[in-house]
Amino acid sequence: MVAPLPLSIFLIARNEADRIGATLAALRDLTDDLIVVDSGSTDGTRELAASFGARVIERDWPGYGPQKRFAEEQCRHVWMLNLDADEVVPPDLAAEIRRLFAAGEPPHPAYAVGIAEVFPGETRPHRLAYTLWPVRLYRRDRGRYSPSPVHDRVELDASATVGRLRSVIHHFSVRSLGDQLDKLNRYSDQQADDLEARGVRIPTWRLFVELPGNFLKAYFGRRHCVRGAYGFLTAMNYAISRHLRVAKHYERRIGGRDRPGARGR
């Protein structure tokens, strides 16, 4: 058995029992400090996470940034890796992270890690899959997650340099088209809340271009077009969710009465 790295790994979760097992299984040998912050799961997520040796902490859902900030505070090590419950570290990425720490302190205080979607019916990302490159591996004294309830990103201090890993996280984000659209619809509520809280006003003309513009962005810009019919359908879901964000913002602005209360994930 290989020694764990001086690295804490943290996840936030709610009702992820069907996916979190694969995520945690891939992390067994990387860390001796695995944290799962759960926000009210009813499907056995907490018990499953504990069976993989995770420290499971229950906390009501305050939004993405505040929940990840809370999870950061539970970590024992200076170096932290953040994953979502539907993301899997493949063997090549685990080996690359090990090599990074092999000579001692990594040269950069933060690293961008690619995240590529794996759609239903696939076992790994398409070779042309669109890949996001957020900072996910970082020193806790050089960066923290943004406190925003909807914007999921690490804010680094001004002098921090960012390296980039070559291997990518496999993101199993789509259970089904219906589940994806339901999740995106809930997220659009949170985005509309955030726009209102920050006093942002999106012009009305955006209502007419948000759906077609974001379909083109997803289908061609994010290369969903290489995924055939399923790529077309997921691009449509993305476009609908972006349209809903603006539509709900507009409805509130003109005094719409459907004003949701507190929402979970």
Summarize the SSE layout with pairings.
Elements: E1 5-13, H1 20-25, E2 31-38, H2 45-51, E3 55-58, H3 64-73, E4 79-82, E5 87-88, H4 91-102, E6 110-117, E7 131-132, E8 135-139, E9 143-145, E10 154-156, E11 162-171, H5 177-197, H6 206-221, H7 228-253
Helix pairs in contact: 5-7, 6-7
Give me the strand/helix succession: EHEHEHEEHEEEEEEHHH
Second CATH tier, the architecture of the largest domain: Alpha-Beta Complex
Query: What is the alpha-carbon Rg in Å?
Result: 19 Å
Largest sheet properties: 9 strands, mixed
Strand content: 15-25%
Count of DSSP H/I helices = 7
| Coarse structural class | alpha/beta
**CATH class of the largest domain, please?**
Alpha Beta
CATH fold name of the largest domain? Spore Coat Polysaccharide Biosynthesis Protein SpsA, Chain A
Give a structural overview.
It contains 7 helices and 11 strands. The chain has 265 residues and is α/β, with parallel strands linked by helices. Strands 1, 2, 3, 4, 5, 6, 7, 8 and 11 form a 9-stranded mixed beta sheet that branches. A two-stranded antiparallel sheet has the order 9-10. Strand 2, helix 2 (45-51) and strand 3 form a beta-alpha-beta unit.
